[in-house]
Description:
By secondary structure, the protein is of the alpha/beta class.
Amino acid sequence: MLVHGLLAPPPGRPDAVVSQMPxxxxxxxxxxxxxxxxxxxxxxxxxxxxAAAAQSGxxxxxxxxxxxxxxxxxxLRDAALVGVIHExxxxxxxxxxxxxxxxxxxxxxxxxxxxxxxRAATRARLGWREDTPxxxxxxxxxxxxxxxxxxxxxxxxxxxxxxxxxDGNQREALRTSAAGLPNxxxxxxxxxxxxxxxxxxxxxxxVTQRASVLDMSVPSKLTxxxxxxxxxxxxxxxxxxxxxxxxxAGAGVLVTPEDPGALLAAVRALADDPAAADALGAHGPRYVxxxxxxxxxxxxxxxxxxxxxxDARRDAPRDARGGAHR
Length: 326
């Protein structure tokens, strides 16, 4: 993608260039196109890949982190403004050489619909008994998620059904670890039409991260979790962006990461008090409506573009007749 993007003929002179990072290739290509045409460049940082490599625990992460950070630094250094989807990314972006005055927070908006199916019917279709609490994790199964904590919880609590829904490079390792545990299920990703209905059918939704994961990403699953109206238990670092978002929404509880005992205690407390669990989960849709709606997201992005284009026009050179050059 990078080579193709660098060699492709220019698409015509834009008024501004916007890229989403990652991808790193998209960030580098966007920066090159903006410099070629001398127009404002606005990268929006969804994940910090250099930090991700450093914090993920993968073998060779240090070398990967250095290479990714170099690409990020190149892509961000001349940006007119840099958007970040969460304020926890600001220190990492500043460390890449971006001044604080050029950073704007532009959270993503949710694109999933609210649940609509009958909850009991969905549980019956999925084979989830009404008298068995279901703890559901959906999304990527990678190293940074630290999903071993859910397998350890299942080993301690045979009365709780743990469902891992999704895919990823750690799925088979987790299946091996969970071998012989009848209360652990692995499910394929749910289809778009039934996704939030499946989330809403669970008793508790889990988001887990390794203790080392602090400021490199905010899981996109959180917005879907909030839409579903079910309580979230977040086994994550208390000073990371994921914890900040759970606290802000008021739709979940935080526990120490990589601690199956703490996670189990929180899940049991919610399973034993369905009314409290329902009340906690109800904060999620309200938070989404107020802060993560499509309208709110587009308004923030419009403001970002208006600021950049307004600055560009004010800074444009004047000709002898007083007009601004395009």
